[in-house]
UniProtKB/TrEMBL annotation, chain A:
Tetramer of two alpha and two beta chains. PANTHER family: TRYPTOPHAN SYNTHASE, TRYPTOPHAN SYNTHASE-RELATED. It comes from the Bacteria. One of its GO terms (cellular component) is cytoplasm. It comes from Flavobacterium humi. The keyword Zinc-finger does not apply. Belongs to the TrpB family. Pfam families: PALP. The modification N6-(pyridoxal phosphate)lysine is found at K89. Gene3D superfamilies: 3.40.50.1100. This is Tryptophan synthase beta chain.
From TrEMBL, chain B:
The alpha subunit is responsible for the aldol cleavage of indoleglycerol phosphate to indole and glyceraldehyde 3-phosphate. GO terms for molecular function: tryptophan synthase activity. CDD domains: Tryptophan_synthase_alpha. The keyword Ribosomal protein does not apply. SUPFAM superfamilies: Ribulose-phoshate binding barrel. The keyword Amino-acid biosynthesis applies. Tetramer of two alpha and two beta chains. Its EC number is 4.2.1.20. Keywords: Amino-acid biosynthesis, Aromatic amino acid biosynthesis, Lyase, Tryptophan biosynthesis. This is Tryptophan synthase alpha chain. It is an enzyme of class 4 (lyase). GO terms for cellular component: cytosol. It catalyses: (1S,2R)-1-C-(indol-3-yl)glycerol 3-phosphate + L-serine = D-glyceraldehyde 3-phosphate + L-tryptophan + H2O.
């Protein structure tokens, strides 16, 4: 278990819980209970039942014929885009809302950037009849109007984060402040493998269903349960954590984490944290993050709203530092072209986040019999206007 | 004797003021300290601004953002404070989030504080166990008192652990909240103040969060040794400027 969190939530030097005393009780309550609750047979039964009947799991592992012919490898797409609400995010919100109920919490808060995690949280709150408040940067609210409308239709209250840069990191700050102000009845559903321990480990465990299914599906299709490569995009890193999880200790599986290079890694408009980041503390976790020399957190950029987080989860910082995963950076242009190529060759419109993972096909050469799994983390419906504007 | 200890022994309720360095203007740090001392502040917490102050309400957030926009940095703050002990004799603490301190280098930061004559540090997101394991020895080497926070939700067991690790005062957060969000103190806060007083801790307590006028100062210090005013002071600074610092303090003590 070298690549997973130790009992204090550290992945090598990264992770931990750097939180103010005001959050101690809630985070500690979660830390002490999450594994016990998650391991209860009844919890597992309820979780997997909902994943099957409500989310639509297992999601297919699709052999992409035309991509495979073009890139001369066996390319499979893990179809998280077919999950209810359109992305992998709901795997985690189902798990956490079940935990919240067991902890007796009645009020759910969440942060969201592009709105996918917000929609997934609003959805499970509607399902469970819980109050839901989603914090979203004022700028993101303007950029992602359809998802704001979806959250409201699902009964959630969307509160604008007007501090700082008014995007995802500020929405996260606001959610944390809400939790400080409401320590008794509130549960905070974090959407990625970020934040104080136990969140990175807990979210990775809920998302690990992705790699559990990949193993089983590959065994059926290829007669082996490990691929040669798993490729996933990384913002905070939840879909990558889920797709890598059961392969972390299998050294023969190449893990490729794809970050958003925006307009170019060194253009000043990028979200390539592994290249541009230094070790620091963000949202209660010690990890790699983009910051000024003075330790002020800087605002990242990517055409994809789901990848412009200034840090990465501590698991990914550890995978990067230990060289267990290879980190690649893909620009806006490369991602948009890869997204369009998938539309034309396979009839699938990917989320722009996931298109970053697809763009690796142009950069990496594979052997002819290599089995390559790309995690198609979300669908592109939410990105139609961005695609249309870009290709105009 | 550390000046904080000396101050805590005085037979009076202490007023401590928090302000954000670099706000409202970049070079206001020293003039603000002078006026605070002249007008009877017992102790000052100099806020090192951070881009993402997650335990702070809108007032301190805005002052931090303004200070950073003005060009405040850790290095510049130390330059401003270089000769501060020629004029300022009341205890001085630096309050800031951990990331900027980490980037400066924890040991270099502590060394610089000692050189200038800073007496203590308040770092809300440096947790107890990390402090004890990794940084306690460094802080102590440079004679810096690390001040921990407790809240109404902090268990007695944890309060005792915090008391054992503290060697100055305990920062008693008045209620479950970010800074600057409390109107006044109700019964539950009074009960909490009383409960902590009855624990007979070795470190005196100073109440912060929600103290903003004479009434709340008196309520907070009925059981505690002193109180800290932050957001209300910054608001006054923003609205009435530096000239009104004396007027503001007179309304409290």
């Amino acid at each position: 278990m070298k690549y997973n969190a130790n009992e204090n939530g550290f992945y090598g030097e990264f992770g931990g819980a750097f939180i103010p005393e005001m959050l101690h009780l809630n985070v500690e309550e979660l830390r002490q209970n999450y594994l016990d609750y998650m391991n209860e047979p009844e919890f597992q039964r309820e979780f997997h039942q909902l994943l099957a009947d409500y989310v639509g799991r297992p999601t297919p592992l699709y052999f992409a014929h035309r991509l495979s012919a073009k890139y001369q490898a066996k390319i499979y797409l893990k179809r998280e885009d077919l999950c209810h609400t359109g992305a992998h995010k709901i795997n985690n919100t189902i798990g956490q809302v079940l935990l919240a109920k067991r902890l007796g919490k009645t009020r759910i808060i969440a942060e969201t950037g592009a709105g996918q995690h917000g929609v997934a949280t609003a959805t499970v709150c509607a399902l469970m009849g819980l109050q839901c408040i989603v914090y979203m940067g004022e700028i993101d609210i303007r950029r992602q109007a359809p998802n704001v409308a979806r959250m409201k239709m699902l009964g959630a209250e969307v509160r604008p984060a007007v501090s700082g840069s008014k995007t995802l990191k500020d929405a996260t700050n606001e959610a944390i402040r809400d939790w400080i102000n409401n320590p008794l009845d509130t549960y905070y559903i974090i959407g990625s493998v970020v934040g104080p321990h136990p969140y990175p480990d807990m979210v990775a465990r809920f998302q690990s269903v992705i790699s559990a299914e990949i193993k089983q599906q590959l065994l059926e299709k290829e007669g082996r349960d490990t691929p040669d490569y798993v490729i996933a995009c990384v913002g905070g890193g939840s879909n990558a954590a889920g797709a890598f999880y059961h392969f972390l200790e299998e050294k023969k599986v190449g893990l490729i984490a794809v970050e958003a290079a925006g307009k170019g890694i060194h253009s000043g408009e990028s979200a390539a944290t592994s290249v541009l980041g230094k070790t620091g503390i963000i949202h209660g976790s010690k990890t790699l993050l983009m910051q000024s020399e003075d330790g002020q957190i800087t605002e990242p950029y990517s055409i994809s709203a789901g990848l412009d987080y200034p840090g990465v989860g501590p698991l990914h910082a550890h995978l990067f530092q230990s060289k267990r995963a290879e980190f690649m950076a893909v620009t806006d242009d490369q991602a948009m072209q890869a997204g369009l190529a998938l539309c034309n060759m396979e009839g699938i419109i990917p989320a722009i986040e996931s298109a970053h993972a697809l763009a690796v096909l142009e950069q990496q050469t594979f052997r002819k019999d290599d089995v390559v799994v790309i995690n198609l983390s979300g669908r592109g419906d939410k990105d139609l206007s961005t695609y249309i504007d870009y290709f105009k | 004797m550390n000046p904080i200890h000396q101050k805590l022994q005085e037979n009076k309720k202490l007023l401590s003021i928090y302000f954000t360095a670099g706000f409202p203007n970049l070079n206001d740090t020293v003039p603000i300290l002078n006026r605070l001392q002249e007008n009877g502040a017992d102790m000052v917490e100099i806020g090192l601004p951070f881009s993402d102050p997650l335990a702070d309400g809108p007032t301190i957030q805005a002052s931090s953002a303004q200070a950073l926009a003005n060009g405040m940095t850790t290095k510049l703050l130390f330059e401003q404070l270089q000769s501060i002990r020629k004029t300022i004799h009341i205890p001085l603490l630096i309050m800031g989030y951990f990331n900027p301190i980490m980037q400066f280098g924890v040991e270099t930061f502590c060394q610089k504080c000692a050189e200038i004559g800073i007496d203590g540090l308040i770092i809300p997101d440096l947790p107890l166990d990390m402090y004890e394991k990794e940084y306690k020895a460094i802080f102590e080497h440079y004679g810096l008192k690390n001040v921990f926070l407790i809240t109404p939700q902090t268990s007695d067991e944890r309060i005792l652990a915090i008391d054992a690790l503290s060697d100055s005062f305990i920062y008693m957060v008045s209620s479950a909240s970010v800074t600057g969000s409390q109107e006044g103190f109700g019964e539950s806060q009074q009960d909490y103040f009383k409960r902590i007083a009855q624990m007979k801790l070795k470190n005196p307590q100073i109440v912060g969060f929600g103290v903003h006028d004479r009434k709340t100062f008196n309520q907070a210090t009925q059981y505690a040794k002193g109180a800290i005013i932050g957001s209300a002071f910054i608001k006054n600074l923003a609205e009435n400027g530096m000239e009104n610092i004396g007027g503001f303090l007179k309304k409290i003590i």
